[in-house]
Amino acid sequence: MTPRVRLIAAGAVAVAVVVVVAWPSDDEPPVAPPPVAVAPAPVPGAPPPRTTPLEPSPDEEAPDYEEPPTPPAPATDLALFRLNAAQYDRAARDLLGILDSPTRDFPRDDQAYGFDHIGEVLRVTPLLLEKYERAADRLAAAAWRRLESRTSGGACAVKRDAACARFLLADLTRLAWRRTPAAEELDDVVGVAKDALAAGDPFDSAMRAALTTVFLSPWFLFRVELPQKGDPSRLGGPELAARLATFLWSSAPDAALLDDAEKGRLATPKGLETAVRRMLEDPRSAALAEQFAGQWLSTRSIEDAFLMENQLHGPSPFLEEQRPAVARVRKALREQVERYFRVFLDEDRSALELVDADFTFLDADLSAFYAQPTTGPGLQRVHVAQDARRGLLGLPAMLLMTSNPERTSPTKRGRWVLSQLLCEAPKPPPPGADVLPKVEGQLSMREQIEAHSKKKSCAGCHAGIDPLGFALENFDQAGDWRTLDHGRPIDSRGVLPDGRVIDGVSGLRAFLRDDPRFASCLVRQMLTYALARGLGDDDKRTVERLSKSFAEKGHRLRELVLLVATSEPFLRRSAGGAR
Amino acid sequence: MTRRPLSRRTLLRGAGATLALPALEAMLPRRARAADGSDPARPPLRWVTFYVPNGIHMPAFTPAKTGRDHDLPPILVPMAPHREDLLVISGLGNAAALGETDGDHNRGTGSFLTAAKCRKTQGRGIRNGISADQVAANHLREATFLPSLELGTARAHGPLVCEFGWNCVYQEHIAWSGPTTPLPKEVEPRAAFDRLFGGFDGAQSPTDLERRRRQRLSVLDSVSRQARRLQTRLGTADRERLDEYLTSVRELERRIEHVAPRPPPGHPEEPVADPGLRDRVRAMCDLTVLAFQGDVTRVVTLMLGYGIIDTVYDFLGVRTGHHTLSHHRGDATRFPDLVKIATWEVSQFAYLVQRLKDVREGEGTLLDHSLAYFSSEVSDGNTHDHFNLPVLVAGRGNGTVTPGRHLAFPGQAPIANLFISFLRAFGVPQERFGVTGTGPLPGLTT
Asked: What b/e sequence results for A539-551 when a residue is b if at least 16 CB atoms lie within 10 Å of its CB, and e otherwise?
């Protein structure tokens, strides 16, 4: 245990609950075969069941619940993308200067394909609309504070009436809706103010009501992509601007971008590239690190996952008074990943270096993980002293998020490497897959997993997963370096099914650097994120083409962003996609 | 600008002036009760569902004896004070949750109240059925301020918890207002309290309140007009999504017209912010009782965590995560910890039951007019058994349940039939439910 951990664990009696996420089916599938369907027996006095799951008579319709293959979901059009919490917050920040999150009390956005802004799964429920109404009031109040200074100019110079309201509302509605509203659409918004004035409400109150309308409108809450005249599959200028702002900033377009879009400047490759490069230079592009990299590397939610409390304080019980310290460490761990990723954007480095770069960001808390001093307050860029800590495989946030509370999970980590870095989806465990065998004496985690994976039915998949996780066994469940597990020396060497040897974390790094799947997986992940939908068969060719161009550009990360932002599917409306 | 036609809203506005009465009237929603066809002299029926994750160690849960003089196994001991208000039901199964090898927690939790098939998907085409609580909520829609209340104790933690090929949405939601619409839950007690009683502001003048009401309705009028116009330009799936927006707008309109509920007199302050798990569960139980007591809603679902959650119960001295532990591999040394966790879960349910019992209402207690339903998405967590589910029903459900017994169905009966019985207790003429429900469960009353 490092001094940091001891520091946090110091103290007396504790009462706390630690909730940890388990990666299901990692190495703990059920011991016995799943139960055979039991027919609901006729209940005395009740009518006989409509269907019997065991013996459907041949001429009867098969019972609905006797699963065979679930029919594939139909391909659908996709023109509505509800803002997720991150996008709502940033739109409020960038349009109105609201800094503390208006979405704090919102229900968590549902996720799909690894991200939480996927149009297909984001819905509006009565609870959410209720929260939207309250948040819209907040946004309206902030907007009114900004507009008040203009109430002596333009149409307001004469009188504070509907014309004045219209004058004040036009620009803001355009920015909030990410397009210039049609005259009758603006009439609708102004109408709310007009009605309020007619009822005798003061002007500011009437204006706030109209502004609430702007922010509760479907045109604010959804990014809308409607078919254009001419080529209905092509995105219109403002729609493309909104896509760009979502992709690069997780926010709304600013006035400059919207101007570009409405003047047709995004319609030429040159104009589009200029816009993308300008957006990447803008500090708002930090959202790519926070939202894209944070979700890709599974570290964004480390502040919500309660695992830290357990994993950071070691075997002693968690103390309530440790909560602030743990919260501080969690935040630093998340930001470390973001700062690391941002360097590759800011300095236009090769994305392959993400795997093994020799720099990182440490503060006083994180320096304990890396067993090296830090140079100043806050997160400081430092040279990584220990070879094993280089690159993203040494990031404690990832190592924590892929562990169980009380032990490491090589299978979970191996699966993480496969799914997040190589875009390979392992098959689910077979029926009756065994769980870790009962522990007889002290076995290291590796020995336990190996015993389990010897079972024939499991061996095939585990052989491709576990060696990747074994390579990280020198990092314990808290992300700390270790050389012993249950008193036995760590063996971090593994052999892949094709005979390749992966020796420890440095071996895994070399493996990833050499594997072309790493770069194309990054392309895939970024394209999914940019399109806010699952990828389908039609997108395979795009991924291949982008991967090729990405390599030609030396795998520079900014070039990848540009390639994705100028790719065919990014310029087209969404239809189809993943099944 | 052309003059807009007189809207439904405007008509409602005229009638609205009388609604700005102080909230005491809301505590006695006579009008509403008459509207749902129930007897105004009789307190309304309520239903709270208490979900616990990852199954229960059944050998320590199911009484050996049936009938009135059944035993109380260790996990049920916390219910001892409520024995006469408790109906233990064994032998219920949820065949809708059966499926492939993986995803049992998804299917089990997703179909927990729907008894429907959950479509396996990572994102596109999420599909389940309507949940029974929502059928009840629809039936009561006009009666209360909120048709239903969805509460929980944990937020989802991200994609790492999703099972192979499954979207997490199933394992995290038991209330579904339709096949494609899971209802998110409130996990912050303070936000939930606000939701129940935040609309009541004793400090505002009637004029201010009326202006606020009028403006809110005007805003909603405008945005639903915008949505309807947008809808004509959309394809089917997007139209559905926007329909949900419009439905939510209508629901909010209805609520604005309803008198804002006020907290019952003598109620302590708002819940604390961001409490630990134990305080959180209690706060959610308290809120459930408050919501019932003030007739803010009659349908509540409360999820303790969600399917597959790996809660570490430090305060019980259990150091292994709950889901991990639930895969006990037949190792008897793991059973005591599982019993500890389940006993604690049942003790939380016992707390809820006690609180319902503490409230006098009409000739009896709130509990007499409630159905408090306790269960999990599987029985044995190790094998993901979807039969022999752990089922407790507390309360008398306005006479639709005779508690104080252990009712057993040795040949397995569909859990969906219990839901049909509950729905009929609400006056819903439910014939079938989900994919397995065939009719009411017999034997609930003697």
From this structure: beebbeebbebbe
